């Protein structure tokens, strides 16, 4: 007898869960080991500190909506209030009102972002603006060009950061140098698909809908975020060569070209992930309002 459509037999979903845990432990295990050693990492810590999804949460596997987990062990998922038991097994229920508001915001933001052409000329100068004319740097690593050289790059460049959560860390003297004035209120109006931080944030929007986001999508977004963060810091003013990160020297024409090529590739990688999140939000909201949500 075969399982009804949408029902995963116990061995099948156990295998999927184990594969997910194996995949994400390539990132969570080294992070946990660094924590035990009280060792900070200026590139990778960001993914577990700025983003609030803890390693243990990243390791959890959830199937996503429309999937029923069969077998006795599926009842373990009932510890999360989002799940309910049916005749065939355990599955996700509809969104709560609070989660509905989250899905509506994520849908609006990602749909607006996807509708715009990518802008690829920022050259990662947001990290430079965060250390402009200050001794209070964010990471305990030397500046490649020193404080004066770093300030010179900022002053000789056009800064056009559209991402509020990057802009809000600019030093006070750097903020007037930005061609835009990002704000939380204007976030939906300003975000665009070429922005490194907007593409890293796909991970955030994926886990904000946990456990409704399939864990395969959360892990795909995290995978992208790791690579984007690496470029973000290679193009930063910090000298991270001792950690094996060769700099992208955006203060040179060759370095800016290298940055744009990588930024363009990340834009292409992010596009299907953003589309999957948009589809997920529409699906979740349709279940709430009876299929009338068509944004």
Structure description:
The structure is a single chain. By secondary structure, this protein is mainly alpha-helical. It has one domain (7-289). The chain has twelve helices and four strands; from the N terminus they run βαααβββααααααααα. The strands form two sheets. The chain has a two-stranded parallel ribbon. A hairpin with a 4-residue loop joins β3 and β4 (90-92). The longest helix has 37 residues, at 253-289. The mean pLDDT is 94.
Lateral arrangement of strands in the main beta sheet? 1-2
Beta-strand residue percentage: under 5%
Instruction: Identify the overall geometry.
Output: globular
Number of domains: 1
Total number of helical segments?
12
Q: Determine Rg (CA atoms, Å).
A: 21 Å
- What share of the residues lie within helices? 40-55%
**DSSP strand tally:** 4
Cα-to-Cα separation, first versus last residue: 40 Å
The secondary-structure element order is EHHHEEEHHHHHHHHH
Biggest beta sheet attributes: 2 strands, parallel
Average pLDDT rating: 94
Structural class: mainly alpha
Poorly predicted ranges: none
Oligomerization:
single chain
Protein name: 3-methyladenine DNA glycosylase
């Amino acid at each position: 007898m075969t399982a009804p459509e949408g029902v995963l037999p116990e061995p099948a979903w156990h295998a999927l869960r184990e594969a997910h845990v194996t995949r994400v432990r390539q990132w969570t295990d080294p992070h946990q080991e660094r924590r035990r050693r009280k060792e900070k990492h200026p590139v990778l810590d960001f993914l577990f500190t700025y983003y609030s999804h803890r390693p243990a949460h990243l390791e959890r596997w959830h199937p996503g909506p429309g999937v029923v987990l069969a077998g006795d062990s599926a009842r373990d998922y009932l510890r999360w209030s989002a799940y309910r038991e049916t005749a065939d097994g355990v599955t996700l229920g509809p969104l709560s009102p609070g989660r509905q508001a989250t899905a509506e915001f994520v849908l609006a933001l990602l749909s607006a972002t996807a509708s715009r052409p990518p802008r690829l000329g920022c050259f990662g100068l947001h990290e430079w603006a965060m250390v402009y004319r200050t001794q209070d740097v964010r990471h305990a690593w030397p500046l490649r060009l020193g404080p004066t050289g770093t300030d010179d790059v900022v002053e000789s460049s056009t800064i056009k950061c559209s991402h509020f959560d990057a802009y809000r860390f600019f030093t006070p003297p750097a903020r007037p140098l930005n061609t835009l004035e990002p704000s939380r209120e204007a976030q939906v109006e300003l975000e665009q698909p070429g922005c490194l931080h907007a593409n890293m944030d796909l991970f955030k929007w994926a886990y904000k809908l946990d456990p409704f986001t399939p864990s395969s999508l959360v892990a795909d977004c995290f995978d992208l975020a790791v690579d984007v963060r690496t470029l973000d810091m290679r193009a930063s003013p910090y000298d991270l060569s001792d950690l094996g990160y060769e700099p992208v020297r955006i203060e040179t024409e060759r370095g800016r070209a290298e940055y744009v090529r990588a930024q363009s590739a990340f834009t292409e990688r992010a596009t299907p992930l953003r589309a999957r999140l948009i589809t997920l939000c529409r699906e979740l909201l349709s279940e709430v309002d009876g299929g009338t949500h068509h944004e």
